[in-house]
């Protein structure tokens, strides 16, 4: 199975970057499935029905989430009716939505997608992501060999630990949230693809996707300046994963970084 995971899509620049590249990527890479982290798609924080529908229409199959899951009130009702929109699975029972979804490709292959939120410097009151992963995998249908985990977490050590903890039990663990791509993509000893952070899909002429001047005021003047999405060309960041449909192991993992206005150079980089 050929899978593309797209890192945190931030506001309009991120959605534009997806629009600029995804159709070509689906064709050139023969993608079976596309998953994107969408917690920042609506104005940089949260999800709306309109922005989620935009990504679905562009060719994204499943949307994962994070700590901004509920920033837009309409997400509470929307997530009840849209199973392709996940929220972190370690929220308590009774929270709208689910953090587990099984996607089926046109060829009939099935992929379990698990969305988890970190505890360290994030949401310590939520259930332990390690135990939550154990429970989700224990209830996984036996015929589902491939599982992708989006671990939305702050610290690299917690992400590293979950990757090692799940090595050999899931196909890939991809980290999101920090909006800064890491260069440690690899296949762990027991066959699980891993990267600490996929990076964001948004405007990199910014501070993690937000307007630079407004962000600097928060750091320097200590004023409660409102964050605003940076305006400028977007960059699509993600990872391409090649998963074995029979064993669930990851055969290959490749980082991806494609600027909105550089389709020719992007195609050249992919060919390298």
From TrEMBL:
GO molecular function: 2',3'-cyclic-nucleotide 3'-phosphodiesterase activity; metal ion binding
Binding site for Fe cation 2: 39, 67, 152, 177
Active-site annotation: 68
Keyword Metal-binding tagged: yes
Binding site for Fe cation 1: 8, 39-40, 179
Listed CDD domains: MPP_DR1281
Top-level taxon of origin: Bacteria
InterPro entries: Metallo-depent_PP-like, YmdB-like
Keyword entries, A-Z: Hydrolase, Iron, Metal-binding
Family: Belongs to the YmdB-like family.
Protein name as annotated: Metallophosphoesterase
Source organism of this protein record: Candidatus Muproteobacteria bacterium RBG_16_65_34
